Structure formats: structure tokens, C-alpha cells
Amino acid sequence: MARRKPDISSTTSPATTAPDGSKIPGMPAAAKKTAAEPRADASAAQVIDLNKKTIARAWAIVNKNPALEKIYTRLLEIVSEANLQEADRRYSIGRLVAQVRQETDKYRKGSVEKLATLLGFDTSTLHDYANVADTWQNKTEFNALLRQESERGFGLRFSHLVVLARVADEKHRKKLIALALEMSLTVRQLENYVRTEAASADEPAPPALSGAVDRARHVVAFWEGAVDQVDRDTRELERLAASSPDVLPYLQKTAEKQRALAETASACAAKLEALAKAGSAR
């Protein structure tokens, strides 16, 4: 069962109790719900007890380390700050988590997992935030990157940076940033492109063809994302139509656009298939 990400802009719940009877300060409400993965056959009472024990164990470790408790307190402040932009919130969380990861002698190994438990985050989410903060350590550069827009007004989101932070080579990362802006790539399209590159890394194209192959990979990634986007948009319009009759005229307009796209895509697909067959026959 997947853990639900908390609404990190929400207020915190009343503190829970540590093994020694002390209170755990300011824990987000989501932490109590997401602290542990219960067995599929566990009863509600067993799930609650398991979560409480997991949280209490995490707090016992954090509470014994003044430096780590200070980090936790600061993270709570950031999570609860109502006036922070979401990207700034995630970046600030990431900087603190990156600090904990780097200074293991001071904070001890496994501390990120304990903080995730207390805050109600997936551990992988905290690591993603830290990777972004590590990749763009200069906050001014980070802010400038999120302000960049293409001629069509498209800009990157924090989730784009999570994907880009997985690319170790800085020059290649900058190339991907330019590509994402130029082609208005969604996060999923960018992920598909990076994944396709990684999968074919062991079979590099000849130097003379590398630019063409890179472009072709992007086209594949774009269309994979486009298919998903059409499906998501259709489901969204269905949901909106169920709640508001004013949306109905837009369903017809969207259907007309989708039908026109399907006709164009079908004709283009036939051309590409013919080219592929002709090339294979050579």
C-alpha cells in the first residue's frame, strides 16, 4: 500500500507520546497516518499501534541527538510556514536534509529515515528534495532556473528539477534544461526521455548520428507523454462535466480537437511506418 504524501502546508497535530512519557512536539497530522506500512491483514488497532511505535522509536533517536532535534524543529517550521512558495519550501527542506546526509558523524546514519517518519514524508521524497538542493547549491541560480520561460511562456517546475538532478553530467543537464523549455516537456515526458537515454547508454549511436538519435529519442518521449496527457485531460473533463453543466460545450470542442489530432496522427503514423519498413528492407 502506497504511502500518501502529506499536505505540507497544513498545521501540525497535537504531539504524540514518546516511550519515556514525553511529548513529541508539533508532529504533522499526516505523520501518524503514514509512519509505517502495516500488514495487509492488520486490524485498525494494530495499524495505529504500529504507527505509534514507529514514530516513538524515531523520536527516541532524534531526541537523543541535540543537533538532529534542532534540524527537526527547523523542518517543522518550514513545513508549517504558510507564506512560503512551494518550490522554496521544498528547496529549504532539501538543504537541511542534504546537511544531515553529508554530516553522518554528527547526525548519524539513518537519520533521514527518522525525520521522514516524524514529518510524515516518504524517505525518497526527502532524498529527492536534497538532491535538488545539492545540484543547485546556489539559491540564486535555483530561483533563476525556475523563472526561465520559453517563448511560449513555458517554465520548469520543481518536479522537473527532481528529474534533472538525477543527471550527473552538468553539461548534459543544461542541454536537457534547454530541451525541456524548448519543447514544453511535462515532468513525465522529461522522465521518459532521461530513462530512454539511460537504457540505450550501452549502445551509443555513431558520432555523426548522435544529434539525430537524440532528437528521435525526444520525439518518442514526447509522444509517450502526450498519450498519457490526452487520457488525463479526458478524465478531468469527465469529472468536471459531472459537477457543472457549463462545461458541456467544452467537451464537444475538445472532442473535435482530439478527432482532428487522431486523423493527423494516423496519417503521420502511416508515413513513419512506411519509412521504417523501407529502411529495414535495405
Note the topology.
Blueprint: H1 29-34, H2 44-63, H3 66-80, H4 86-102, H5 104-107, H6 111-119, H7 123-135, H8 139-147, H9 158-164, H10 170-183, H11 187-199, H12 210-243, H13 248-280
Helix pairs in contact: 2-6, 3-4, 3-6, 4-7, 7-9, 9-11, 11-12, 12-13
Question: Care to describe what's here?
Answer:
The structure is a single chain. This protein folds into 3 domains: 29-136, no CATH class; 148-243, no CATH class; 247-282. α2 (44-63) packs across α6 and α3 (66-80) runs parallel beside α6. It is mostly helical and 282 residues long. The protein is globular, with a radius of gyration of 24 Å. The protein has helices spanning 29-34, 44-63, 66-80, 86-102, 104-107, 111-119, 123-135, 139-147, 158-164, 170-183, 187-199, 210-243, 248-280. Helix content is 69%, strand content 0%. The N and C termini lie far apart (51 Å). It is built from 13 helices and no strands.
Output the keywords.
13 helices, 282 residues, disordered N terminus, 3 domains, globular, mainly alpha, single chain, 0% strand
Characterize this entry briefly.
With 282 residues, this protein is an all-alpha fold. It contains 13 helices and no strands.
